[in-house]
């Protein structure tokens, strides 16, 4: 959220308190402060927003309080609400060669998360691989290797939305000794689709594994 000082006096101790007005979302971070805003300048603060259900339209507003030391007055104001559509796109499975997928991923926005697996990576990996085609994705490549106390399984998937925009997923399940982890990477070409697509894929992975996702 960006706050601009359009006045003639310096604003100090600018406190920005966001709030969710509409949508199945939540904020669990405290208000944030911008120490000083001189006339004509702006400050930016950011928060992580989580979804308690399938993402839809988000409407978020904010309360802004600041101190005008010249007049020795504390001011408060409301920022106009902003609406953003965070719904996940519908994708259909479309195959690309591994080289084509890598090239598209290099030009995409991405987000990743790693978490512990409830059982060995050897068992968890095929479970996730079998689940992702149900999300409108085509498997592009899959490989495994293991030796004694170690295992690594990797797979990539790709799909297109109705505008022929690419979406890709890569999973890496690994075990070293008794500890197993899964790394989930999501790639999108459309920034506005990143939150919804990542949320949907993440939910599908945890649903397949029988685990509850932690909010990122």
The parts where pLDDT drops under 50 for at least 5 residues are: none
- Compute the number of strand runs: 14
Biggest beta sheet attributes? 6 strands, antiparallel
Number of distinct helices: 3
Shape: elongated
Report the β-strand fraction as a percent range.
Answer: over 45%
> At the fourth CATH level, what is the homologous superfamily of the largest domain?
TATA-Binding Protein
**CATH class annotation of the largest domain:** Alpha Beta
At the fold tier of CATH, the topology name of the largest domain is TATA-Binding Protein
Label the structural class. Answer: alpha+beta
CATH architecture identity of the largest domain? 2-Layer Sandwich
Order of helix and strand elements from N to C terminus: EEEEEEEEEHEHEEEEH
The percentage helix is 10-25%
Mean pLDDT: 91
Instruction: Count up the domains.
Output: 2
What Rg is obtained from the alpha carbons, in whole angstroms? Answer: 22 Å
**N- and C-termini, Cα separation:** 19 Å
Could you explain how this protein is built, in words?
The chain has 216 residues and is an alpha+beta fold. It folds into two domains: 2-85, Immunoglobulin-like, CATH 2.60.40; 92-209, TATA-Binding Protein, CATH 3.30.310. Helix content is 17%, strand content 50%. It contains three helices and 14 strands. It has helices at 98-106, 121-131, 194-209; strands at residues 2-4, 11-22, 25-27, 32-37, 42-44, 49-51, 57-68, 73-85, 92-93, 109-116, 138-147, 150-160, 166-176, 179-188. Strands 9, 10, 11, 12, 13 and 14 form a six-stranded antiparallel β-sheet that branches. The chain has a four-stranded antiparallel β-sheet with strand order 4-2-7-8, with no helix packed on it. Strands 1-5 form a two-stranded antiparallel sheet. Helix 2 (121-131) packs across helix 3. The radius of gyration is 22 Å and the shape is elongated. The mean pLDDT is 91.
